[in-house]
User: What shape does this take?
Amino acid sequence: MKKFKPQHSRLLFIDKRIREKTYPNCATLAEEWEVSAKTIQRDLDYMRSMLDAPMTYDAGKRGYYYTQECFHLPAIALNDSELFAIFIAEKVLGQYESTPIYPRLKSFFAKVAESLPEKISIDPAQLDSKFSFFMMPYTIIREQVWETVFTSLRSLRTIEISHAKPGGTSLALREIDPYHIVNFQGEWYIIAFCHSRQDIRTFALSRISEARLTDRVFFVPADFDFRAATRNRFGVQWSEKKYEVRIWFSSLAAPYIRERQWHEGQIIEENPDGSVIMSFTASHLLEIKRWVLSWGGLARALAPESLADEIVSELKRAAENYGDIDGKRDHQPA
Assistant: This one.
């Protein structure tokens, strides 16, 4: 059976045989690797032309050797299009600049670029002028907290944290077992078992002022499957409840609704007037409420009734912030 391996593995194999000074040729290399001699010949041509391998054929010994023993293959073999993809990935990851992992990513990208031969290169300045990424607002995470949490994830050790609730100033001391990390709209969250609540809870890393590793080891339950448990989520909030959600969008909003996948289980019904109704199953309503409110008069929650009631109450409170709608708006909200 032929060996099914990528080209770079084959190049490493050829390089090893040449370094062993056995003077391999196309026929011997092809037989050992179980490919055609033409494939090996193309690899040799690639090593010479693209990787600048100082390779020469010895007619007397009927095989190849290196004229410069100091030559080494690049650690990673990438072509221009693959390097271009890495450039895009580096730009996208720029939105995580607030996290301690970002300098390491920058260092990784630099090492990738340095490992390539000189003939494979991309001018970053040229790409910078053609691509822009508008970063979303992000939260600030303490480096000590970040390192402790990720050490806990790797070593499965319980941590003690000082955590504040949203908008709160007092800190609560908790012992948690981190199971999973989630990034959502510029915020990082830990999905963890909380010892005091004896249940799985979600904690924002930005609201943790201090974290300390303990010596206690935990085990993630075999039946814990975050992706399965959050299949019906909308945003980062999730629970074991199920809500059948139906939202009407006007004909003005409908084109924007059709062009995106807002929820993996969404169903869109078309109305004769150009409006649409989106239906899906959700496990939490908080972020759905915020989303519907963001559409203003272009959207209306049809179900569940509790969602519609919460939106009506929120709109009333918002209207009160503007006082007299006839123009007397110079006072501060209470």
